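User: If only I could read C-alpha coordinates as easily as an amino acid sequence. Underneath my words sits a plain record pairing an amino acid chain with its C-alpha coordinates. This is the protein in question:
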Amino acid sequence: MRRLGALAANLAKNRRRWENAQVSPRKAVATSDRLAEVVDFGSNPGNLRMFTYLPEVRQRSSALVVVLHGCGQTAAEYDYGAGWSTLADRYGFALLLPEQQPANNAQTCFSWFRPADTTRGRGEGFSIRQMVERMVRAHGIDPSRVFVTGLSAGGAMASAMLAAYPEVFSGGAIIAGLPYGSARNVQEAFESMFNGRTRSAREWGDLVRAASPHAGPWPRVSVWHGTVDATVAPMNAKEIVKQWTDVHGLPPSPSENDQVDGYPRQVWRGPSGEALVEEYTITGMAHGTPLAPHAPSDPHGAVGPFLLDVGIASSYHIAKFWGLTTGADRRRPARPRAGPDEGWPTAKTAHLSTAEPQLGTHERPGASGSPHSAFDVKSMIAKALRSVGLLGH
Protein backbone atom coordinates (compact mmCIF):
# COMPACT_ATOMS: atom_id res chain seq x y z
CA MET A 1 0.00 0.00 0.00
CA ARG A 2 2.90 2.35 0.67
CA ARG A 3 4.10 1.90 -2.92
CA LEU A 4 0.61 2.53 -4.25
CA GLY A 5 0.27 5.68 -2.13
CA ALA A 6 3.57 7.05 -3.36
CA LEU A 7 2.58 6.33 -6.93
CA ALA A 8 -0.78 8.08 -6.50
CA ALA A 9 0.91 11.13 -4.98
CA ASN A 10 3.36 11.32 -7.84
CA LEU A 11 0.61 11.02 -10.45
CA ALA A 12 -1.42 13.73 -8.75
CA LYS A 13 1.62 16.00 -8.74
CA ASN A 14 1.98 15.68 -12.50
CA ARG A 15 -1.71 15.46 -13.35
CA ARG A 16 -1.92 18.85 -15.03
CA ARG A 17 0.93 18.01 -17.38
CA TRP A 18 -1.05 15.10 -18.78
CA GLU A 19 -4.47 16.82 -18.71
CA ASN A 20 -3.12 19.82 -20.63
CA ALA A 21 -1.70 17.62 -23.38
CA GLN A 22 -3.07 18.51 -26.80
CA VAL A 23 -3.01 16.71 -30.08
CA SER A 24 -0.98 18.42 -32.81
CA PRO A 25 -2.92 18.59 -36.07
CA ARG A 26 -1.87 16.17 -38.82
CA LYS A 27 -2.48 16.37 -42.49
CA ALA A 28 -4.12 13.62 -44.55
CA VAL A 29 -2.45 10.25 -44.23
CA ALA A 30 -0.49 9.08 -47.26
CA THR A 31 0.40 5.49 -48.07
CA SER A 32 4.09 4.54 -48.16
CA ASP A 33 5.70 1.37 -49.45
CA ARG A 34 9.14 2.28 -48.16
CA LEU A 35 9.10 -0.07 -45.18
CA ALA A 36 8.62 -3.83 -45.31
CA GLU A 37 7.51 -5.93 -42.36
CA VAL A 38 9.43 -9.09 -41.44
CA VAL A 39 7.84 -11.86 -39.36
CA ASP A 40 9.28 -14.98 -37.76
CA PHE A 41 12.57 -13.28 -36.88
CA GLY A 42 12.88 -15.10 -33.56
CA SER A 43 11.00 -15.94 -30.38
CA ASN A 44 10.08 -12.24 -30.02
CA PRO A 45 9.55 -12.25 -26.24
CA GLY A 46 8.71 -8.53 -26.30
CA ASN A 47 5.89 -8.93 -28.86
CA LEU A 48 7.23 -6.19 -31.17
CA ARG A 49 6.84 -5.72 -34.92
CA MET A 50 9.87 -5.60 -37.23
CA PHE A 51 10.09 -3.21 -40.18
CA THR A 52 13.06 -2.77 -42.50
CA TYR A 53 14.28 -0.50 -45.26
CA LEU A 54 16.94 -1.54 -47.78
CA PRO A 55 18.07 1.10 -50.29
CA GLU A 56 18.43 0.05 -53.91
CA VAL A 57 22.16 0.73 -53.80
CA ARG A 58 24.04 -0.26 -50.66
CA GLN A 59 27.66 -0.13 -49.67
CA ARG A 60 29.46 -3.46 -49.58
CA SER A 61 29.11 -4.90 -46.05
CA SER A 62 26.76 -2.05 -45.31
CA ALA A 63 25.99 -0.53 -41.95
CA LEU A 64 22.69 -0.94 -40.11
CA VAL A 65 20.85 1.79 -38.20
CA VAL A 66 18.18 0.72 -35.68
CA VAL A 67 15.57 3.49 -35.33
CA LEU A 68 13.21 3.54 -32.32
CA HIS A 69 10.11 5.73 -32.51
CA GLY A 70 8.60 7.74 -29.65
CA CYS A 71 5.25 7.39 -27.90
CA GLY A 72 2.21 7.75 -30.12
CA GLN A 73 4.25 7.16 -33.27
CA THR A 74 4.66 4.29 -35.69
CA ALA A 75 7.90 3.16 -37.29
CA ALA A 76 6.80 4.59 -40.64
CA GLU A 77 5.81 7.95 -39.18
CA TYR A 78 9.07 8.42 -37.36
CA ASP A 79 11.11 7.35 -40.39
CA TYR A 80 9.17 9.78 -42.57
CA GLY A 81 9.60 12.67 -40.15
CA ALA A 82 13.23 12.09 -39.14
CA GLY A 83 14.23 11.29 -42.73
CA TRP A 84 16.23 8.16 -42.05
CA SER A 85 15.25 6.27 -45.23
CA THR A 86 16.15 9.31 -47.32
CA LEU A 87 19.61 9.29 -45.75
CA ALA A 88 19.79 5.52 -46.27
CA ASP A 89 19.24 6.08 -49.99
CA ARG A 90 21.95 8.73 -50.11
CA TYR A 91 24.58 6.95 -48.08
CA GLY A 92 23.85 3.28 -48.70
CA PHE A 93 23.06 1.85 -45.25
CA ALA A 94 20.20 -0.39 -44.14
CA LEU A 95 17.49 0.41 -41.59
CA LEU A 96 15.75 -1.64 -38.93
CA LEU A 97 12.68 -0.02 -37.40
CA PRO A 98 11.12 -1.95 -34.49
CA GLU A 99 7.56 -0.95 -33.67
CA GLN A 100 5.73 -1.15 -30.36
CA GLN A 101 2.25 -2.67 -30.24
CA PRO A 102 -0.75 -1.24 -28.35
CA ALA A 103 -1.15 -4.63 -26.65
CA ASN A 104 2.10 -3.88 -24.81
CA ASN A 105 1.54 -0.18 -24.20
CA ALA A 106 -1.61 1.76 -25.01
CA GLN A 107 0.43 4.74 -26.22
CA THR A 108 2.92 2.59 -28.15
CA CYS A 109 5.80 3.63 -25.89
CA PHE A 110 8.72 1.23 -25.63
CA SER A 111 8.95 -0.15 -22.08
CA TRP A 112 12.27 1.48 -21.23
CA PHE A 113 11.59 1.50 -17.47
CA ARG A 114 10.68 -2.18 -17.04
CA PRO A 115 13.55 -4.52 -16.07
CA ALA A 116 11.59 -7.34 -17.73
CA ASP A 117 12.07 -5.54 -21.06
CA THR A 118 15.52 -3.99 -20.65
CA THR A 119 17.51 -6.73 -18.92
CA ARG A 120 19.86 -8.59 -21.26
CA GLY A 121 18.16 -11.58 -22.84
CA ARG A 122 14.63 -10.54 -21.90
CA GLY A 123 11.53 -8.82 -23.26
CA GLU A 124 11.44 -6.02 -25.79
CA GLY A 125 15.18 -5.47 -25.75
CA PHE A 126 15.83 -9.08 -26.66
CA SER A 127 13.26 -8.88 -29.46
CA ILE A 128 15.22 -5.97 -30.92
CA ARG A 129 18.44 -7.95 -30.53
CA GLN A 130 16.86 -10.82 -32.48
CA MET A 131 15.86 -8.40 -35.23
CA VAL A 132 19.43 -7.17 -35.51
CA GLU A 133 20.70 -10.73 -35.80
CA ARG A 134 18.18 -11.43 -38.56
CA MET A 135 19.32 -8.35 -40.49
CA VAL A 136 23.02 -9.22 -40.15
CA ARG A 137 22.43 -12.80 -41.27
CA ALA A 138 20.04 -12.07 -44.14
CA HIS A 139 21.49 -8.92 -45.68
CA GLY A 140 25.26 -9.02 -45.34
CA ILE A 141 25.37 -6.31 -42.69
CA ASP A 142 28.82 -5.58 -41.27
CA PRO A 143 28.36 -6.59 -37.59
CA SER A 144 30.93 -3.98 -36.57
CA ARG A 145 28.76 -1.21 -38.07
CA VAL A 146 25.45 -1.49 -36.22
CA PHE A 147 24.01 1.64 -34.57
CA VAL A 148 20.87 2.56 -32.61
CA THR A 149 18.96 5.80 -32.16
CA GLY A 150 15.60 6.80 -30.71
CA LEU A 151 13.37 9.64 -29.57
CA SER A 152 11.90 10.02 -26.07
CA ALA A 153 10.80 6.54 -24.93
CA GLY A 154 12.67 5.28 -27.99
CA GLY A 155 15.71 7.26 -26.84
CA ALA A 156 15.49 5.74 -23.38
CA MET A 157 15.16 2.31 -25.00
CA ALA A 158 18.25 3.09 -27.09
CA SER A 159 20.05 3.75 -23.78
CA ALA A 160 18.94 0.31 -22.61
CA MET A 161 20.10 -1.39 -25.81
CA LEU A 162 23.53 0.24 -25.60
CA ALA A 163 23.87 -0.90 -21.98
CA ALA A 164 22.50 -4.44 -22.31
CA TYR A 165 24.10 -5.22 -25.69
CA PRO A 166 27.22 -3.02 -25.99
CA GLU A 167 29.01 -5.63 -28.09
CA VAL A 168 26.28 -5.34 -30.74
CA PHE A 169 26.35 -1.56 -31.27
CA SER A 170 29.25 0.59 -32.44
CA GLY A 171 27.36 3.74 -31.59
CA GLY A 172 24.11 5.21 -30.35
CA ALA A 173 22.17 8.47 -30.37
CA ILE A 174 19.72 9.40 -27.63
CA ILE A 175 17.24 12.18 -28.42
CA ALA A 176 15.17 13.63 -25.56
CA GLY A 177 15.81 10.40 -23.67
CA LEU A 178 17.05 9.23 -20.29
CA PRO A 179 20.07 7.40 -18.87
CA TYR A 180 20.03 3.65 -18.54
CA GLY A 181 18.86 2.64 -15.07
CA SER A 182 17.04 5.90 -14.29
CA ALA A 183 13.78 4.05 -13.55
CA ARG A 184 12.59 0.56 -12.68
CA ASN A 185 8.84 1.19 -12.41
CA VAL A 186 6.24 3.72 -13.49
CA GLN A 187 6.61 5.95 -10.44
CA GLU A 188 10.34 6.29 -10.98
CA ALA A 189 9.72 6.79 -14.70
CA PHE A 190 7.52 9.82 -14.03
CA GLU A 191 10.01 11.21 -11.55
CA SER A 192 12.92 10.76 -13.93
CA MET A 193 11.03 12.23 -16.88
CA PHE A 194 9.62 15.31 -15.15
CA ASN A 195 12.23 16.03 -12.49
CA GLY A 196 15.34 14.11 -13.51
CA ARG A 197 17.45 11.84 -11.35
CA THR A 198 20.98 12.79 -10.33
CA ARG A 199 23.73 10.26 -9.68
CA SER A 200 27.50 10.45 -9.76
CA ALA A 201 29.22 9.59 -13.02
CA ARG A 202 30.62 6.43 -11.41
CA GLU A 203 27.16 5.31 -10.24
CA TRP A 204 25.71 5.83 -13.71
CA GLY A 205 28.65 4.06 -15.31
CA ASP A 206 28.39 1.13 -12.92
CA LEU A 207 24.81 0.53 -14.06
CA VAL A 208 26.04 0.07 -17.64
CA ARG A 209 28.98 -2.10 -16.64
CA ALA A 210 26.67 -4.35 -14.63
CA ALA A 211 24.18 -4.76 -17.49
CA SER A 212 26.30 -7.21 -19.50
CA PRO A 213 29.53 -9.21 -19.26
CA HIS A 214 31.11 -6.94 -21.87
CA ALA A 215 34.35 -5.18 -20.87
CA GLY A 216 34.82 -2.91 -23.87
CA PRO A 217 35.32 -1.35 -26.28
CA TRP A 218 32.17 0.69 -25.76
CA PRO A 219 29.77 2.36 -28.22
CA ARG A 220 30.25 6.01 -29.06
CA VAL A 221 27.22 8.06 -28.01
CA SER A 222 25.54 11.23 -29.33
CA VAL A 223 23.10 13.06 -27.00
CA TRP A 224 20.46 15.59 -28.14
CA HIS A 225 17.98 17.54 -25.99
CA GLY A 226 15.94 20.76 -26.15
CA THR A 227 16.31 23.29 -23.36
CA VAL A 228 12.56 23.86 -22.92
CA ASP A 229 11.51 20.22 -23.03
CA ALA A 230 8.62 19.87 -20.55
CA THR A 231 8.10 16.15 -21.16
CA VAL A 232 11.60 14.84 -20.39
CA ALA A 233 13.62 17.18 -18.17
CA PRO A 234 16.65 18.58 -20.03
CA MET A 235 18.92 17.64 -17.12
CA ASN A 236 18.62 14.03 -18.31
CA ALA A 237 20.99 14.86 -21.17
CA LYS A 238 23.74 15.80 -18.71
CA GLU A 239 23.17 12.59 -16.77
CA ILE A 240 23.44 10.55 -19.98
CA VAL A 241 26.73 12.29 -20.75
CA LYS A 242 27.98 11.53 -17.22
CA GLN A 243 27.05 7.88 -17.70
CA TRP A 244 28.88 7.38 -20.98
CA THR A 245 31.92 9.54 -20.29
CA ASP A 246 32.47 7.43 -17.17
CA VAL A 247 32.05 4.19 -19.13
CA HIS A 248 34.64 5.44 -21.63
CA GLY A 249 36.95 6.62 -18.85
CA LEU A 250 36.77 10.25 -19.99
CA PRO A 251 37.05 13.37 -17.81
CA PRO A 252 33.97 15.45 -16.91
CA SER A 253 35.13 18.42 -18.98
CA PRO A 254 34.75 18.17 -22.76
CA SER A 255 37.70 18.12 -25.10
CA GLU A 256 36.17 20.91 -27.14
CA ASN A 257 33.20 23.25 -27.39
CA ASP A 258 31.85 24.50 -30.68
CA GLN A 259 28.65 25.46 -32.46
CA VAL A 260 26.88 23.60 -35.25
CA ASP A 261 24.15 25.41 -37.15
CA GLY A 262 23.97 27.89 -34.30
CA TYR A 263 23.63 25.36 -31.45
CA PRO A 264 26.17 24.45 -28.75
CA ARG A 265 28.00 21.14 -29.16
CA GLN A 266 30.42 19.57 -26.70
CA VAL A 267 32.76 16.72 -27.63
CA TRP A 268 34.70 14.25 -25.49
CA ARG A 269 37.59 12.62 -27.36
CA GLY A 270 39.49 9.44 -26.60
CA PRO A 271 43.28 8.97 -26.40
CA SER A 272 43.57 8.71 -30.18
CA GLY A 273 41.52 11.82 -30.77
CA GLU A 274 38.34 10.01 -31.80
CA ALA A 275 35.03 11.55 -30.72
CA LEU A 276 33.46 9.11 -28.25
CA VAL A 277 30.71 11.23 -26.68
CA GLU A 278 29.04 14.37 -27.96
CA GLU A 279 26.18 16.52 -26.69
CA TYR A 280 23.99 18.92 -28.66
CA THR A 281 21.98 21.44 -26.64
CA ILE A 282 19.10 22.75 -28.77
CA THR A 283 18.28 26.09 -27.19
CA GLY A 284 14.60 27.01 -27.19
CA MET A 285 13.43 23.61 -28.46
CA ALA A 286 10.60 21.65 -26.83
CA HIS A 287 10.22 17.86 -26.81
CA GLY A 288 11.10 16.24 -30.10
CA THR A 289 13.65 15.43 -32.77
CA PRO A 290 15.49 18.44 -34.28
CA LEU A 291 14.99 18.86 -38.03
CA ALA A 292 16.06 21.08 -40.90
CA PRO A 293 13.80 19.59 -43.60
CA HIS A 294 14.46 22.34 -46.13
CA ALA A 295 18.23 22.58 -45.76
CA PRO A 296 19.57 23.18 -49.30
CA SER A 297 22.65 20.98 -48.83
CA ASP A 298 20.97 17.78 -47.62
CA PRO A 299 17.15 18.04 -47.40
CA HIS A 300 15.36 15.23 -45.57
CA GLY A 301 12.59 14.75 -43.02
CA ALA A 302 9.26 16.44 -42.48
CA VAL A 303 7.71 18.43 -39.64
CA GLY A 304 5.11 16.60 -37.58
CA PRO A 305 4.24 15.60 -34.01
CA PHE A 306 7.47 15.69 -31.98
CA LEU A 307 9.46 16.39 -35.17
CA LEU A 308 10.52 20.01 -34.96
CA ASP A 309 12.02 22.33 -37.58
CA VAL A 310 14.67 24.18 -35.60
CA GLY A 311 17.29 24.53 -38.33
CA ILE A 312 19.55 21.59 -37.51
CA ALA A 313 19.24 18.11 -39.03
CA SER A 314 19.91 15.73 -36.16
CA SER A 315 19.61 12.57 -38.27
CA TYR A 316 22.31 13.76 -40.67
CA HIS A 317 24.67 14.88 -37.91
CA ILE A 318 24.17 11.59 -36.06
CA ALA A 319 24.98 9.61 -39.22
CA LYS A 320 28.04 11.79 -39.70
CA PHE A 321 29.17 11.22 -36.10
CA TRP A 322 28.98 7.47 -36.72
CA GLY A 323 31.01 7.77 -39.94
CA LEU A 324 28.15 6.77 -42.23
CA THR A 325 28.42 9.79 -44.54
CA THR A 326 32.12 9.40 -45.33
CA GLY A 327 33.02 7.95 -48.71
CA ALA A 328 29.40 7.39 -49.75
CA ASP A 329 28.02 8.55 -53.08
CA ARG A 330 25.67 11.38 -52.13
CA ARG A 331 24.46 11.63 -55.70
CA ARG A 332 22.41 8.47 -55.43
CA PRO A 333 18.81 9.39 -56.29
CA ALA A 334 16.37 8.89 -53.45
CA ARG A 335 13.31 6.77 -54.17
CA PRO A 336 10.17 8.82 -54.78
CA ARG A 337 8.21 9.57 -51.66
CA ALA A 338 5.39 11.80 -50.53
CA GLY A 339 6.53 15.34 -49.81
CA PRO A 340 6.04 17.20 -46.52
CA ASP A 341 2.78 18.68 -47.80
CA GLU A 342 1.27 15.31 -48.71
CA GLY A 343 0.70 14.01 -45.21
CA TRP A 344 2.05 11.26 -43.03
CA PRO A 345 2.77 7.70 -44.20
CA THR A 346 1.69 4.32 -43.03
CA ALA A 347 3.89 1.27 -43.45
CA LYS A 348 3.06 -1.30 -46.09
CA THR A 349 3.22 -4.85 -44.77
CA ALA A 350 5.37 -7.40 -46.62
CA HIS A 351 5.32 -10.72 -44.77
CA LEU A 352 8.60 -12.54 -45.12
CA SER A 353 9.46 -16.01 -43.90
CA THR A 354 12.75 -16.77 -42.19
CA ALA A 355 13.86 -18.59 -45.36
CA GLU A 356 13.50 -15.49 -47.54
CA PRO A 357 16.26 -12.86 -47.12
CA GLN A 358 15.16 -9.89 -47.04
CA LEU A 359 5.50 14.63 -31.71
CA GLY A 360 5.40 18.33 -31.28
CA THR A 361 4.12 21.17 -33.50
CA HIS A 362 6.30 23.36 -35.67
CA GLU A 363 8.73 25.10 -33.29
CA ARG A 364 11.48 27.60 -33.95
CA PRO A 365 14.52 28.42 -31.79
CA GLY A 366 13.44 30.63 -28.93
CA ALA A 367 9.91 29.29 -28.85
CA SER A 368 8.87 28.27 -25.37
CA GLY A 369 5.85 26.19 -26.32
CA SER A 370 5.73 22.57 -25.26
CA PRO A 371 3.74 20.50 -27.77
CA HIS A 372 2.44 17.14 -26.64
CA SER A 373 0.27 14.47 -28.10
CA ALA A 374 -2.74 13.36 -26.12
CA PHE A 375 -2.35 10.37 -23.83
CA ASP A 376 -4.87 7.87 -22.59
CA VAL A 377 -3.63 8.26 -19.03
CA LYS A 378 -5.92 5.63 -17.54
CA SER A 379 -4.78 2.91 -19.95
CA MET A 380 -1.14 3.82 -19.59
CA ILE A 381 -1.23 3.84 -15.81
CA ALA A 382 -3.16 0.56 -15.70
CA LYS A 383 -0.50 -1.04 -17.86
CA ALA A 384 2.25 0.36 -15.69
CA LEU A 385 0.56 -0.78 -12.50
CA ARG A 386 0.38 -4.30 -13.89
CA SER A 387 4.06 -4.19 -14.72
CA VAL A 388 4.97 -3.56 -11.08
CA GLY A 389 2.49 -6.03 -9.66
CA LEU A 390 0.00 -3.52 -8.27
CA LEU A 391 -2.89 -4.52 -10.52
CA GLY A 392 -4.05 -7.94 -11.69
CA HIS A 393 -3.94 -8.95 -15.34
Q: What stands out?
A: The chain is about 30% helix and 15% strand. Residues 203 and 379 are 33 Å apart (CA to CA).
